[in-house]
């Protein structure tokens, strides 16, 4: 009896030690990400790598570049100080929430619209960018707006995990929607004539049009897509710091400088409307 008691106490003590050493007893929700990041002096961000202007892999130097990436770098410095490091992990519209939930990334900054459905599973910062859904079509296309797509026989291309594919089903219910894995594949599909239009946010489409002169953005915007930084539920102090950083960037002109850097020379895109 005594022996068994001793063994049980020993096992319990060993468990406690292991748990406190590895932190494995803590679920993600219990971990204070802000505190951990302050300790490591690093924030791990999920960014797009297939989206020109927001997050695009530059094969020449293997760096991901874009507005979201620069925002992440600035927010990191505001939170951790000038020596703070931003680390980047590639995400797609589909993989970003699972990667956050699994703890592979601390935050998502990846053209992600704040929606009520998503807000049930992640927490969002205040909006840091105003986008809206639009259409990309070949230059010779007759399609002028989303109503022109609302006919049988029309195929609209989009990306899995993007809310644009849900939206287009509402705005053009008669069209067929083909969902590709990422924006690079969606553009290839448009070029191959697999659909009459590609739909997502205007900024993303302008990024494609800049690189592909045979295509144009049409129809203005038919939805509002406010982008937010997403973090796991239960990380309120982290969200507060992110909001503070965004506010500081807007107050000291850093934000508008980034808007000008990325959107100042995009034909057809009025970057002045994006300034804050
Ligand atoms: N902003 C939209 C979304 O969050 C479309 C862009 C994207 O696929 O990331 O789903």
Mean pLDDT over all positions: 92
Compute the CA-based radius of gyration.
Answer: 22 Å
Instruction: Name the quaternary structure.
Output: single chain
**In terms of per-residue confidence, which ranges show pLDDT below 50 for 5 or more consecutive residues?**
14-25
Tell me briefly what this model is.
The protein is of the alpha/beta class and about 280 residues long.
Describe the structure.
- A 5-stranded mixed beta sheet has the order 11-10-12-9-13, sandwiched between helices. A 3-stranded parallel beta sheet has the order 5-1-6.
- The protein has 2 domains: 144 residues, Periplasmic binding protein-like II (D-Maltodextrin-Binding Protein, domain 2, 3-Layer(aba) Sandwich); 91 residues, Periplasmic binding protein-like II (D-Maltodextrin-Binding Protein, domain 2), CATH 3.40.190.10.
- It has 276 residues and is of the alpha/beta class.
- The protein starts with a helix and ends in a 13-residue tail after the last helix.
- The chain has 9 helices and 15 strands.
- The structure holds glutamic acid.
Keywords:
alpha/beta; D-Maltodextrin-Binding Protein, domain 2; 9 helices; binds glutamic acid; signal; Solute-binding_3/MltF_N
What is this structure's SSE topology?
Layout: H1 2-22, H2 33-40, E1 42-48, E2 50-51, E3 55-58, E4 63-65, H3 67-80, E5 85-91, H4 96-101, E6 107-108, E7 122-124, E8 129-131, E9 133-138, E10 155-159, H5 163-171, E11 176-180, H6 183-191, E12 197-201, H7 202-211, E13 215-218, E14 225-227, E15 230-232, H8 236-251, H9 254-263
Parallel strand pairs: 1-5, 1-6, 10-11, 10-12
Antiparallel strand pairs: 2-3, 3-4, 7-15, 8-14, 9-12, 9-13
